[in-house]
């Protein structure tokens, strides 16, 4: 599993323990004197926040295990108790907070996946299989306790110092957090960032001497200084994004408004009431990236302004109207939380005006403005019934390439997280006709389908259907809306121009070498692909086009990039450089990342490589050139990295 895949899966695992917070907040709120005045209810809710790290240990262990096993959850709890109790005997000042729960949960889940089926000798057979998992987890966590007892104090001090720094930055720190939080939404990695801010940064000790960490924890424990990482989200989620939805509705042609109005109203109401915004955000995230960048900037500004005004508000799940009403009179809520509603009205107007202007000026294909060929919509099954959910799930399996294309089916709140054999078999149009807001391709084997709040139900139904038998992929073609009279097959026109699919820039500065002059038979014969080569004179290797880094070799001497139009580019620095075992190369970007043309990917020690490599002539080829009609070379004798155009790919 690569780093991106690990954090993707971790973000999903964090969803389960976070999901218990709303019930805790409800009990804590309704038990207060100004409502039911029942302390035992408030204490019941408070118990969740008091034991949040343990809940994370159990929840992460369960969801990280291969079959959501109870044995893994038990092992997570065992590991947590051993880790936390053993560490403090070495250093009483250690307090890892929810990180202790996350770490032990990962250890327990991984231990279950590795040893849940272990066979022991007969006299120890009682302790074999799943019973072995808590035992092994306890041992591993005891070893971790011995390590963290000495290693963690400086890390804890660093986190504390970092938290103090970002809190000391005040409004600016909150604004940066809000901006980055939205930018990470497309990858799903925002949950990892949120966990640090909401459950780790900051410290508050209540009257009973209990220490609480993180914005959410501290807020519900009564810390009147908490909320800087939460307050500014309320105006955006309750008002700003619904304003964006109205702008998209008004920007659609009048005849298409009825078609998109119900969908936009649904996602806008969801955002307002619950703060769940992904179904709305994915409607324009990829169709109109400029709008999404504006949205991220406005989110950062909202958190900046809320902190600047000294507003302290919090939520248990997300910044919707339900959470706003529940927290309004809590002890930690500032007296001016009503100003969030004023900010919300302003945000609604700003979003509506900006989105309306940008959509029209840039002619963006927001809902209702798509080309006619994209508007064919299948009648969706009633997913509120068991039969309807089964039908919808079966259709999604077909849309993602059939059961043979699926390796792993997972889900979070709004997304199907799928591991597939070939992402190229996923039919985007079919998914969207089923109601998906968008499809995210992280690499050739990892995709996300944005389906809304029913994601987990669809995922579970898909698993059950696949267990019953194979399901075929849907046809790649779309059934036309109206029958078309048959026509004679068009005659091919020799050398007809089919358009330019993409233009590559030089990945490194240097002297151009014709591909047939490369001193390597595989490249010179174009068996690897067509293109050219460069003998480098600079040390930084950049992306020759915008796209996804689907592969970076472990030795860092080469990478494969897939452009948005499907061209697969291989950049191979030097010949036989794989034998150097990675020496002379430094990776700057991780596999699976999306890069833009000219973005640095590798750094080379050129002097070392010139002395040790067989040749530093570096091919840059299109490996799937057979999918296109050819190349047009543009490079001169020398090129400059990220600036000089080297060739065009003809469609």
UniProtKB/TrEMBL annotation:
The chain crosses the membrane at residues 12-28, 40-62, 69-88, 94-112, 132-153, 165-185, 192-212, 232-252, 259-276, 282-306, 337-359. Residues 1-371 form the PTS EIIC type-1 domain. GO terms for molecular function: kinase activity; N-acetylglucosamine transmembrane transporter activity; protein-N(PI)-phosphohistidine-sugar phosphotransferase activity; protein-phosphocysteine-sugar phosphotransferase activity. Keywords: Cell inner membrane, Cell membrane, Kinase, Membrane, Phosphoprotein, Phosphotransferase system, Sugar transport, Transferase, Transmembrane, Transmembrane helix, Transport, Zinc. Signal peptide: none annotated. It is an enzyme of class 2 (transferase). InterPro entries: Dup_hybrid_motif (IPR011055), Glu_permease_IIB (IPR036878), PTrfase_EIIB_Cys (IPR018113), PTS_EIIA_1_perm (IPR001127), PTS_EIIC (IPR003352), PTS_EIIC_1 (IPR013013), PTS_Glucose_EIICBA (IPR050429), PTS_IIB_1 (IPR001996). Residues 390-472 form the PTS EIIB type-1 domain. Its cofactor is Zn(2+). The active site is at residue 412. Residues 520-624 form the PTS EIIA type-1 domain. One of its GO terms (biological process) is N-acetylglucosamine transport. GO terms for cellular component: organelle inner membrane; plasma membrane. It is found in: Cell membrane. It catalyses: N(pros)-phospho-L-histidyl-[protein] + D-glucose(out) = D-glucose 6-phosphate(in) + L-histidyl-[protein]. It is a multi-pass membrane protein. Its EC number is 2.7.1.199. The phosphoenolpyruvate-dependent sugar phosphotransferase system (sugar PTS), a major carbohydrate active transport system, catalyzes the phosphorylation of incoming sugar substrates concomitantly with their translocation across the cell membrane. The enzyme II complex composed of PtsG and Crr is involved in glucose transport. This is PTS system glucose-specific EIIA component.
């Amino acid at each position: 599993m690569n780093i991106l895949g690990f954090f993707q899966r971790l973000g999903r695992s964090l969803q389960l323990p976070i999901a218990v917070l709303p019930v805790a907040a409800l009990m804590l709120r309704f038990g207060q004197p100004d409502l039911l005045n029942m302390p035992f209810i408030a204490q019941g809710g408070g118990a969740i926040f008091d034991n949040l790290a343990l809940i994370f240990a159990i929840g992460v262990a369960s969801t990280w295990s291969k079959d959501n096993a109870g044995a893994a959850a038990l092992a997570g709890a065992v590991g947590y108790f051993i880790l936390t109790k053993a560490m403090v005997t070495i250093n009483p000042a250690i307090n890892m907070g929810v990180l202790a729960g996350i770490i032990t949960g990962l250890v327990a889940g991984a231990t279950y996946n590795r040893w849940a089926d272990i066979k022991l000798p007969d006299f120890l057979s009682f302790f074999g299989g799943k019973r072995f998992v808590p035992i092994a987890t306890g041992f591993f966590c005891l070893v971790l306790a011995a390590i963290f007892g000495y290693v963690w104090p400086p890390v804890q001090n660093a986190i504390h110092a970092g938290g103090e720094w970002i809190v000391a930055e005040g409004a600016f720190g909150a604004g940066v957090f809000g901006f980055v939080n939205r930018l990470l939404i497309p990858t799903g990695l925002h949950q990892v960032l949120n966990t640090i801010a909401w459950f780790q940064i900051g410290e508050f000790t209540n009257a009973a001497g209990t220490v609480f960490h993180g914005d959410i924890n501290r807020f519900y424990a009564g810390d009147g200084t908490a909320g800087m990482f939460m307050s500014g989200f309320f105006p955006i989620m309750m008002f700003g994004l619904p304003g964006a939805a109205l702008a998209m509705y008004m920007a659609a042609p009048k005849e298409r408004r009825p078609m998109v109005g119900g969908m936009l109203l649904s996602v806008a109401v969801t955002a307002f009431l619950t703060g769940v915004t992904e179904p709305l955000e994915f409607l324009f995230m990829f169709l109109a990236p400029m709008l999404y960048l504006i949205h991220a900037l406005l989110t950062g500004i909202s958190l900046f302004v809320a902190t600047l005004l000294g507003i302290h508000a919090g939520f248990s799940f997300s910044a919707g109207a339900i959470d706003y009403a529940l927290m309004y009179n809590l002890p930690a809520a500032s007296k001016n939380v009503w100003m969030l509603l004023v900010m919300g009205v302003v945000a609604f107007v700003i979003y509506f005006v900006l989105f309306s202007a940008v959509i029209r000026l840039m002619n963006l294909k927001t809902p209702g403005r798509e080309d006619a060929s994209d508007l064919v919509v299948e009648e969706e099954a009633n997913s509120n019934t068991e039969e309807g959910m089964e039908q919808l799930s079966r259709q999604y399996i077909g849309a993602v390439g059939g059961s043979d294309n699926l390796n792993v089916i997972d889900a979070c709140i709004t997304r199907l997280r799928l591991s597939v054999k070939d992402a190229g078999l996923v039919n985007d149009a079919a998914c969207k006709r089923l109601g998906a807001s968008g499809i995210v391709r992280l690499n050739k084997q990892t995709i996300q389908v944005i389906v809304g709040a029913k994601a987990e139900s669809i995922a579970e139904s898909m698993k059950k259907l696949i267990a019953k038998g194979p399901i075929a992929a849907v046809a790649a073609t779309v059934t036309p809306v109206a029958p078309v009279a048959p026509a004679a097959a068009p005659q091919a026109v020799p050398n007809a121009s089919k358009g330019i699919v993409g233009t590559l820039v030089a990945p490194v500065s240097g002297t151009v070498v014709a591909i047939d002059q490369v001193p390597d038979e595989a490249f010179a014969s174009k068996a690897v692909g067509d293109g050219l080569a460069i003998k480098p004179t600079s040390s930084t290797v950049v992306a020759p086009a915008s796209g996804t880094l689907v592969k970076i070799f472990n030795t860092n001497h080469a990478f494969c990039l897939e452009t948005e139009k499907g061209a697969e580019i291989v950049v191979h620095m030097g010949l036989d450089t794989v034998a150097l075992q990675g020496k002379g190369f430094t990776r700057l970007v991780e596999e699976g990342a999306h890069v833009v043309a000219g973005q640095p990917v590798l750094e080379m020690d050129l002097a070392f490589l010139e002395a040790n490599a067989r040749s530093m002539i570096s091919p840059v080829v299109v490996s799937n050139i057979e999918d296109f009609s050819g190349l047009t070379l543009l490079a001169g004798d020398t090129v400059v990295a990220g600036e000089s155009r080297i060739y065009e790919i003809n469609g």
